[in-house]
Design a protein that fits this description.
The strands form three sheets. The protein has a five-stranded antiparallel sheet with strand order 7-3-10-9-8, with helices on both faces. A three-stranded antiparallel sheet has the order 4-5-6. Helices cover 47% and strands 18% of the residues. It is of the alpha+beta class and 358 residues long.
Length: 358
């Protein structure tokens, strides 16, 4: 940022104090308030000196003056600079070790007894909403690449079967299938055994392709069984053209109290309810290979209705593989340090669940 290069160390300290005061109170910040804060920290700056520095910060687009108030509020660029300072510098504040012990205990206790990626993600959205007073979001990784652990078929009625597919990530899917012809209990058991013995550990997409190849190759009684397997698998894991991603959202009510524009709020809520839009939004900004939490201010570039909101998110891994994305959507005036550290900490829950002794 070209303007940032023109900001002195003292101005950065003043800007940080302004941002944190504004986050805390939601009110425009005056020079007297900052002078008192700086004095308490040993800087000993006068109100006049702070006022002059604030005027320069306003000139480079980092502060603005709402209405006729004597105080100033940080601009979006100021928030960006503030977040960059939290993450970098000689003493970075974005570190899970800095997450308050109370928050850590609250998170840990929330996940006691929760097992499997699906259940963890569902609980995650609730925990993040509670901790951040924003909207907690958790998205499971596209299921197509997940590995098969076990499949089971149960006969419900004539030509109706319950299929249960369990993946290595802990995701459990169950579907009631309406078949073209009735299958006996023995045929269903044979089909399940065939899949479990031959394809355990295979990706869902690869299982479908291999069964299709086997059906094409075979010209015998064996093909009759394969045809049943193919029909059952196609129903249990339908091919949608787009890998299915499960989305969990919690805390939408937190935005209701923080937004005054009711029409804009309605647009935000509509966007949150259209969960596929959230998948697109997070996929646009969060790379599964990234190692740390990311803050995104320009959500309106992907979703105009998200203007004025901020995304803080990170990929969640289990055993070195991405299992989804966890994050918070909230107003610019949020507690960035705590929220970023909480998102990072929760993203690590997955590995701790897989390797609880580490």
């Amino acid at each position: 940022m070209a303007d940032a290069e023109r900001v002195t160390a003292r101005q950065r300290a003043i800007l940080t104090a302004i941002v944190e005061s504004y986050i805390e109170t939601g009110e425009p910040v005056g020079s007297g308030t900052i002078a008192r804060l700086q004095g308490a920290e040993g800087a000993g700056l006068s109100s006049a000196t702070v006022r002059n520095e604030m005027a320069e910060l306003a000139d480079v687009g980092l502060l603005e003056q709402p209405h006729t108030s004597a105080g100033r509020v940080p601009t979006a660029r100021a928030f960006r600079m503030y977040v960059e300072q939290l993450s970098g510098g000689a003493h970075p504040r974005i570190d899970v070790a800095r997450l308050p012990v109370r928050s850590r205990r609250q998170i840990d206790s929330s996940f006691v007894g929760v097992a499997g990626t699906q259940a963890v993600l569902e609980r995650t959205s609730h925990v993040l909403a509670t901790l951040s007073s924003g909207v907690g979001v958790a998205i499971a990784a596209a299921a197509g690449g997940d590995a098969l652990e076990h499949v089971h078929f149960s006969r419900l009625a004539m030509a109706r079967v319950l299929a249960v597919v369990v993946t290595r990530s802990g995701l459990v899917r169950d579907r009631v299938l309406a078949l073209d012809k009735d299958l006996t209990l023995g045929e269903l058991e044979t089909a399940a055994n065939f899949l479990n013995e031959n394809f355990r550990g295979w990706s869902v997409e690869r299982v479908r392709a291999e069964i299709a190849r086997m059906v094409e190759r075979e010209r015998s009684e064996y093909q009759r069984m394969l045809n049943s397997v193919q029909q059952l698998w196609a129903g249990a894991v339908p091919e949608t053209g787009v890998p299915v991603q499960t989305v969990y959202v919690d805390g939408v009510a937190n935005l209701v109290g923080s937004q005054e524009d009711r029409e804009r709020l309605r647009e935000v809520l509509t966007a949150l309810e259209a969960k596929q839009r959230l998948v697109e939004l997070l996929n646009a900004y969060i790379d599964a290979r990234q190692e740390s939490v990311r803050v995104v201010f320009d959500l309106e570039e992907q979703a105009p209705e998200m203007s004025g909101l901020v995304l803080i998110a990170a990929p969640a891994r289990m055993g070195g593989e991405s299992r989804g994305t966890v994050g918070v959507i909230g107003p610019k005036r949020m507690h960035y340090e705590n929220t970023m550290n909480a998102v990072s900490y929760i993203a690590q829950v997955f590995d701790r669940m897989l390797h609880p002794g580490e």
